[in-house]
Design brief:
This protein is an alpha+beta fold. The protein has 4 helices and 8 strands. It is globular, with a radius of gyration of 25 Å.
Length: 218
């Protein structure tokens, strides 16, 4: 017998079918960091080293990272400055001094960084407050300052000179926050140590008052 092609009628929703709209596309997320940025008066000495050795020189300003990355929606990004200002409302400004260097040893490179000889205690407490409200995701930006903050209480760590030396900072628990300002990366540790001594000979201590946190987004 002959078989004819017959167009099936449009499907009609039954009891087990629903006319649902197509899913909305995922809202784009902004990758955001919260950090401390030294005043521009302190930049020349930092940038002189970073310009030659830091692969992120063009993307990021000199900074001490506090929390990174945060993945925020448009609304979350709009609300972040106000939320931080309220969160840090009672935290007083504090002094930071960077007069020495430390390094992290990674599998394929070493990272040299300026050590906050003064203010490490306050930076750790500041980071703990922010990270409790905005924990970073385990996955070149514009700057915006959020002024006015302060902290009372005790830190849970003691900072000893040299305790950051080596992979992740020898003598520091894994995952513990270590305040640092990146100066550059080297593949050869011996070369990095040589340059570290050269920088130390000409480095004038950098001092400033931390009275704001900054936002960097990419």
């Amino acid at each position: 017998s002959d078989v004819a092609d017959i167009e099936a009628p449009p499907s009609q929703p039954g009891r087990w079918e629903k006319n649902e709209p197509p899913p909305k596309p995922a809202e784009p997320l902004h990758k955001v960091g919260i950090c401390v940025v030294p005043p521009t008066s302190a930049w020349p000495a930092i940038q002189a080293v970073r310009r030659e050795h830091d692969r992120h020189f063009e993307r990021w300003p000199p900074h001490i990272n506090l929390v990174y990355p945060l993945l925020l929606t448009d609304q979350g990004l709009r609300e972040l400055p106000g939320n931080l200002k309220e969160l840090l409302r009672e935290v007083p400004p504090f002094e930071v001094e960077m007069s020495s260097f430390r390094f992290f040893r990674h599998p394929l490179s070493c990272m040299l960084w300026a050590h906050p000889q003064k203010g490490a205690y306050e930076l750790c407490r500041l980071q703990a407050i922010i990270a409790a409200a905005y924990p970073p995701e385990n996955t070149s930006g514009a700057l915006g300052a959020v002024a006015g903050f302060g902290v009372e209480g005790e830190y849970g760590a003691e900072w000893e000179d040299g305790s950051y030396e080596g992979a992740g900072g020898s003598g520091t628990p894994a995952g513990q926050y270590i305040p640092h300002l990146c100066l550059g990366q080297w593949k050869d540790e011996r070369e990095m140590r040589k340059r570290k001594e050269e920088f130390a000979d000409s480095w004038a201590p950098l001092e400033w008052q931390v009275a704001a946190v900054h936002l960097v987004s990419s």
